[in-house]
Amino acid sequence: MRRVRIPPLIALFFIVDGALALMYIANYLIGQPYRPLNVFVDLDGEGNLPAWYSSIQWFSVAILTGLFAYRNASFSNKKSWSLVVLPLLFLMLSLDEATEIHEFLGKMSD
């Protein structure tokens, strides 16, 4: 059976994902003794390390799909224009994660 090699950047993202989860779990298990640390590693929180990291991940995906769209989209072929939508969607998700747009809109609608 052929082994699939995970690219180093993707492996790094998995390692950081695991580290963030372990920090959150460890902080919970020790009773969340220090409030600034609780806020900093809260996976449900906004404006903290996990939210920033998630925004970086979305931005990385936007860049990679944008490069794919750039190489494969053609202005003369209208069907290929849809390739540009995906990187823009990922970029919007990154911006939303970093700037908390959906939280603001939720407060405004309430």
- Classify the oligomer: single chain
First CA to last CA: what distance?
56 Å
Tally of separate helices: 5
Low-confidence stretches: none
Structural class: mainly alpha
Number of strands: 0
Give Rg in angstroms.
18 Å
**What percentage of the residues does DSSP assign to strands (E)?**
under 5%
Q: Mean pLDDT, as a whole number? A: 89
Using the alpha-carbon principal axes, give the shape: flat
Q: How would you spell out the order of helices and strands?
A: HHHHH
Could you characterize what this model shows?
The protein is mostly helical and 110 residues long. Helices cover 70% and strands 0% of the residues. It is built from five helices and no strands. It has helices at residues 8-29, 35-41, 49-72, 85-99, 101-109. Helix 3 packs antiparallel against helix 4 (85-99). The mean pLDDT is 89.
In a nutshell, what does this entry contain?
This protein is mainly alpha-helical and 110 residues long.
Q: What is this structure's SSE topology?
A:
Layout: H1 8-29, H2 35-41, H3 49-72, H4 85-99, H5 101-109
Helix pairs in contact: 3-4
List keywords for this structure.
single chain, 110 residues, mainly alpha, 5 helices, 0% strand, flat
